[in-house]
Amino acid sequence: MVTQGRNALTGVLAALGGFCFFWSCWALAKAKGRTGWWLLAPLILNWLGAVIILCLKDEALGDGESNASPMPGEETLPDWARTK
User: Of 40, 70, 71, 83, which has the fewest CB atoms closer than 10 Å, so is most exposed?
Assistant: First the structure.
C-alpha cells in the first residue's frame, strides 16, 4: 500500500516538473521577444528544443529603445527606482 502512494506522488511530481520546464521555456521565448509558438521546439525536441530557445537572439526592446513615457510621479524618482 505504501508503494501505491509513492507511485502517485512520483507521477504528480513528474507532471509538475514537466509543466514547470515547458512554462519556463515559453516564458524565456516571450522574454526574448519571440512568439509563444516557440514552445513547440521543446515539446517536439525535448532538451534540444530548450537549447535552441536558449540560443535565440534577443529581439525584445531594450530600455533605451522603449517608447513608453514614465508613469505619473516617476519624473522625480532616481533611475534605479523607476519601473522601466
Answer: 83
